[in-house]
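Shift notes (night). Ran CBS domain-containing protein while the centrifuge was going.
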Amino acid sequence: MATKHEQILQHIESLPVGHKISVRQVAKDLNVSEGTAYRAIKDAENKGLVSTIERVGTIRIEKKKKENIEKLTYAEIVNIVDGQVLGGKEGLHKTLNQFVIGAMKLEAMLRYVGAGDLLIVGNRDRAHEEALKAGAAVLITGGFDAEEKVKQLADEKKLPIISTSYDTFTVATMINRAIYDQLIKKEIVVVDDILTPVDRTFFMKTTDLVDKWYELNSETKHSRFPVVDENMKVYGMVTSKDIMGVDRQLPIEKVMTKNPITVNARTSVANSAHLMVWEGIELLPVVDDHNRLLGIVSRQDVLKALQVIQRQPQVGDTIDDIVTSQFSENNDGPPHSYLIKVTPQMTNHLGTISYGVFTTIVTEAGSRVLRNYKKGDLVIENLTIYFIKPVQIDTTLEIHPKVLEVGRKFGKVDVDVYQDGKNVGKALLMAQLIDR
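Came back to this:
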């Protein structure tokens, strides 16, 4: 039977998009405490089912799919720009197609504004009205208000009209930054993208006997299975090692490995790979927030996904992408040495190379030199930075990675970083090597 928390989440999912949700009403409808209702609504917000806006409240929104994650809702825009909703609250759940800056004559502006857009403009009452008539929401910058008839029109059209104290340039920058962040998130492959779902997953119940393992093994040729209770909560894992030489009539819970390592659907594939290598695991159960089985992910699934990621062009470049794209071979230096120029994006507020960028540089250099010794994937297990000296902007660095030790499954690299022949940084990197 579902818990009260789960019942509230199911209730929220059943509500129409755009419906306003209150803690008090949910508590009353489902006969639960307001504390329980509040926690469930916060959980729903984390899952992307609702959005909470200051001075407006919490509204049901459509959960985004991966392919349209970069599209923002008007509710998200309100939160990004610390805005105040002047009218059209019923349309806050809608997603916008594009935003248009109204820094032109009205006739020219309206040629660019269409249904589902967002017009960013100052205190131009006529522009507010015409944009709403064209099916676009309006964001008024500079903290200005809107005319009452415009607010009424926004309510009729169910299109938000929002006011923010920021100027137009700042608002456009903030929205662009939010879209860019969403694009980067879209490119990060998570377990949910590669898991084998529960309806195609073979598992055992805690009430099953060891004999059931032999049946599943014969049917699937697999040797590892999650063990769940009657509520589909994961209680253990069972492998061929666990049942070796054991009486077939024993309950499986007597021989299974209890409290197995699990991941949730939002865990990144890279993190799962590290976990599998670190713990020596071949199969991970994927669970929800209540430890119920959603599916499984195997080491083979993870490795395939990592190889696809490496071949994929990135839509939004992270700082790691920016740093590694600057790497070049140092033809005048020792074998397997590299050059990189320190750009403004790689510096901290003092104008010197940031600690995070230095970490990325030594990690990339160490990874590259290890791949020359052993083809395949690797997971960084430990990184020790002995020292780092201030390095100025527009400086060219030489990176000299030196392999100290490399085995079948393990590698150790010493990395020295030089500027004009002077040692400005030193690190030691250790990695687990994975055969493809």
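The chain has a mean pLDDT of 86. The first strand starts at residue 20 and ends at 21.
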